[in-house]
From TrEMBL, chains A, B:
Residues covered by the Nicotinate phosphoribosyltransferase N-terminal domain: 34-161
Post-translational modification: Transiently phosphorylated on a His residue during the reaction cycle. Phosphorylation strongly increases the affinity for substrates and increases the rate of nicotinate D-ribonucleotide production. Dephosphorylation regenerates the low-affinity form of the enzyme, leading to product release.
CDD domains membership: NAPRTase_A (cd01570)
Functional pathway: Cofactor biosynthesis; NAD(+) biosynthesis; nicotinate D-ribonucleotide from nicotinate: step 1/1
Known EC number: 6.3.4.21
Keywords associated with the record: Glycosyltransferase, Ligase, Magnesium, Manganese, Metal-binding, Phosphoprotein, Pyridine nucleotide biosynthesis, Transferase
PANTHER family from the UniProt entry: NICOTINATE PHOSPHORIBOSYLTRANSFERASE (PTHR11098:SF22)
Provenance organism: Solanum pinnatisectum
Nicotinate/nicotinamide phosphoribosyltransferase domain boundaries: 335-435
Superkingdom of this protein's organism: Eukaryota
Cofactors: Mn(2+); Mg(2+)
Name the UniProt record assigns to this protein: Nicotinate phosphoribosyltransferase
Amino acid sequence: MAAAVVANGKKKLEQIGPKIGVISGPTNPMVTPLLTDLYQFTVAYAYWKDGKHNERAVFDLYFRKNPFGGEYTIFAGLEECIKFIAHYKLTEDEIAFIRKSLPPSCEDAFYNYLRGIDCSDVEIFSIPEGSVVFPKVPLMRIEGSIAVVQLLETALVNLINYASLVTTNAARHRFVAGKSKLLLEFGLRRAQGPDGGVSASKYCYMGGFDATSNVAAGKLFGIPLRGTHSHAFVSSFMSLDEITERSLKHLDSPKVCKDFVCPVKMWLTKLKRSRLLGGIFSETNQSELAAFASYGLAFPGSFLALVDTYDVMRSGVPNFCAVALALNDLGYRAVGIRLDSGDLAYQSCEARKFFQTIEKEFGVLGFGKMNITASNDLNEETLDALKKQGHEVDSFGIGTHLVTCYAQPALGVVFKLVEINNQPRIKLSEDVTKVSIPCKKRCFRLYGKEGYPLVDIMTGENEPPPKVGERILCRHPFTESKRAYVVPQRVEELFKCFWPGSSDKIREDLPPLKDIRERCIEQLEQMRPDHMRRLNPTPYKVSVSAKLYDFIHFLWLNEAPVGELQ
Amino acid sequence: MAAAVVANGKKKLEQIGPKIGVISGPTNPMVTPLLTDLYQFTVAYAYWKDGKHNERAVFDLYFRKNPFGGEYTIFAGLEECIKFIAHYKLTEDEIAFIRKSLPPSCEDAFYNYLRGIDCSDVEIFSIPEGSVVFPKVPLMRIEGSIAVVQLLETALVNLINYASLVTTNAARHRFVAGKSKLLLEFGLRRAQGPDGGVSASKYCYMGGFDATSNVAAGKLFGIPLRGTHSHAFVSSFMSLDEITERSLKHLDSPKVCKDFVCPVKMWLTKLKRSRLLGGIFSETNQSELAAFASYGLAFPGSFLALVDTYDVMRSGVPNFCAVALALNDLGYRAVGIRLDSGDLAYQSCEARKFFQTIEKEFGVLGFGKMNITASNDLNEETLDALKKQGHEVDSFGIGTHLVTCYAQPALGVVFKLVEINNQPRIKLSEDVTKVSIPCKKRCFRLYGKEGYPLVDIMTGENEPPPKVGERILCRHPFTESKRAYVVPQRVEELFKCFWPGSSDKIREDLPPLKDIRERCIEQLEQMRPDHMRRLNPTPYKVSVSAKLYDFIHFLWLNEAPVGELQ
């Protein structure tokens, strides 16, 4: 990407070339080194001016509170971060703009310094994408020259924040809907901008959705695509006369039905006269019937109709069945219906009864199992309410609430300095939950006898790691009284090296989206059920080692001013 | 863009070339014809298969409810829509992907049809961007071949939805903050994805913000940039010894201060010993002092410090003042401080007193007027609460709540068919507020004697327009009893032609962002104050002509099935 156009950056990028491997640039070409806050450049200048810019610093990227009132979060966005890092290079044009944006008193040599910057000396350890994660435990640990790492901050936080939020939201929707339902993401039109839409599709799939309506996301990420037709399609028809191309070949024979509208009309009459179905409807809407017949002609093998344009049970469902039964006569199986308004639980049950009656009365095997998709402003609460009421919906199409994370549209991911020149640093705050945990750290997940994760523990980089079968004291980072001994049955080191910088560590491959999705689903299944409850879930424990605890509090006292009451 | 690579689309695009004029492609390269729902392509196929694809259709793009509990909305996103339209052209690669995504039974000739599609025959009338708009009144009227217009739907809705929402949110923040405050958008890191961030910056500026921290947005749109430094910058310092480059030239003379740290220390001692300031603080944090001194050395002409890393009044403000006063001795004026936590009202008042005391005691003219910026999870409510408490903040930096539209993260923009082949169409719903208003329409804003807009009225395309001084009946579109006579003092036609298609109408130019921003500010000022209140605002009236009213209800009765109570 940038490398191709920046002549003087070429050499260095070539050096890190082998490390990039096949890492392509960010999915969104707008993710450039300028996707950052101005103060990252002013601070870089101040570091540079003071000769401090190359001091080695360690930053933690983490969040402080699980979203949506839950007790877990899914970590997502790592791949995009690594793509950004791998191609980080300021172009001349970008440098010219930075120069224009800083005071004219800034020295020229600084821009030469910017010209030379890339991420060949940055080291990123991270929890793998698609993992279940918890507050305060760093998702990523970024180490490098302080000026360079700060220049990365805003983009990294941006790329992780929404990605993790919407993946978590998708996972929560999946949890409520249950494993057996098909979940479709329909949010593009309501998303916060074009790439809000595209990344929502990616991360909802990661979080457990089955498909998206978003064609661009299908192409970019290989996500299965789904879609039916719109209300406008239905209301664009006036009558059956508009159907000009009416012939349809039998599926399994060379026979051709010359006027498909005939069997459709015939079936509608049959349904109307049926003893069991009679009375449910009288005259159906003819524009709707025309639209369905036309759609059936276009997609005989995958006929799915939106049935709520006029009236679900008095028009949409009978019209759909007439077309589906006519298709059935030609050997085709209709897929089903979509409900997009009204009482979805009730309508789905009524539609199911209608389908089952047809199966019985006309002996159409499998007709009762017709797919019912529901959409219309669905969210966790309505999915939950539907489940409690009882319904016959097989697939849910979810849009606005899912992709905009309506229940909580932002995750507070932060990026804090924890060490510089091997000196641990702490960020204090009057609000204890905002105090940062200092030191370059390692993080472990300890598993109990039943195979569930019990607690995450952070230790200093050079402490001996927790060992299977060995008792270890896990302390709450800030509250003295909260601590527990744990004898782990399994110890998982959470960080893996995703960008080795100038070190000779092995870089973890970026797995394909499907694998990340599977990881996510597996990790969620592994959790103890009480952490996953929608209401009053049990908080998962996050801790520090005894040594790190002591160190935090030593540093804290050291930095905090002593008050004077007056 | 696309035009350059699609050989067989070239000719047609050349024909519409003069109409594109200088319209560049979408800001985000991800805005392509694939940024749409799959069903737009399935529906296009069904239209095409039935020979219906070229039927002339009219769609309205509108929303049903103002966001944030308010009674107004700002329309934004038009420019991006026109850029999308102007360059609409499917590439071979995109067509190949669509072919892969549709059933194999779809006929080949359809893809040839897709190959030939562009927007040379689409006509777009729209309210100008930056206008105050209201529910139900179409923001855009899109006319063209039904298949083509439907293919545009999802992208247009996506581009308008968030743009209008966040512009409205920005305007509401401006309204609460008042005209005199400087409003800075700081949301990039918490936005919903990279272009959530970039477009938030654009539209917050449009809605009345003064600047952004987002460098990419500064470059793309020419928005003024602002920024200070981070907490990490402060905590990266340990002591004053780290400042290696200490010399600073006087602003207006060739004299050089060889060790800037000396006057800083001297001033800190002076402040500590001051009779009036004494007791407020004792020992300040020395790492913070070092960070400020270093930042002052880097930016002597624009020194602004974040003062809450350790303790605002016992460390941050005195340290800032020591550096600011040392700079002052060399002829430089510091800009001010930023508060990012705690009780902003109280802290700003305390800081202001401190500055004013310094101005008096040490005779530093203007020091009392030092700029105070506040940030930290601000939103409409906190701005309002701050105003009620009384504060001394001059600028607000607003992020998360602003850019994610936390109070309501989605606007329900819809896109409805209102006419096909000159036949008006209506979309019914059990929920009356969801019934669409049929017919190709014109829309007018009627102004009263005092210059305020009184009511918006929609009429059929061919009705005589409302006239100044002539009484006209304005009817609520759905409620029979709600109607009023109006004698307008001014009549403004709301739609202008922004994309003339194959007609010879004149295309409105796309104004520069600054002009749209001014339009927005002017339009807001023009509104009657009771519509703008935060609490219980008066709804602005939206109406239809008597003729259109009768027609809606005729069509409604015609389409709705008659129920049977059982």
